[in-house]
Write a structure and sequence with these properties.
- The chain is α/β, with parallel strands linked by helices.
- The chain is 34% helix and 31% strand.
- Strand 3, helix 2 and strand 4 form a beta-alpha-beta unit.
- The longest helix has 13 residues, at 31-43.
- The termini are far apart.
């Protein structure tokens, strides 16, 4: 079975803010694509990155690493939206929920935002 590719759709929202909508697998093979996309946006002056993970079907340790690299680069603010239950559990177990700014709805669960 062939690995599902990662698709990254970038919306430049306004001065300094961009949304990246990911779909597919965020893993060893595709994580460099996310790192490159966030680096390109920072280079273009975008400092607040909203990463929508609602379409991500799998995220492994390389995917988590790519999210951390996106967070650490050039003091960019990174917020994660659309975090499903399985990824939410992984982020909680690794202590990355607070570091990566996971959007939480008022009921305390995690789901897609805007």
């Amino acid at each position: 079975m062939a690995a599902q590719l990662l698709t990254i759709e970038v919306d430049r929202l306004d001065s300094g803010r961009a949304r990246l909508r990911l779909s597919g697998e965020l893993d060893f093979d595709t994580a460099p694509e996310l790192v490159a996309a966030t680096a390109d946006l920072r280079r273009d002056g975008y400092r607040e990155l909203l990463i929508d993970l609602a379409g991500v079907t799998l995220c492994d340790s390389s995917g988590l690493s790519a999210l951390v690299v996106a967070h650490r680069g050039d003091a960019a603010v990174v917020r994660l939206t659309g975090v499903g239950p399985q990824l939410a559990s992984l982020l909680n177990r690794t202590g990355l929920t607070e570091l990566l700014g996971v959007e939480r709805p008022a009921d305390g669960g995690m789901r897609a935002v805007g």
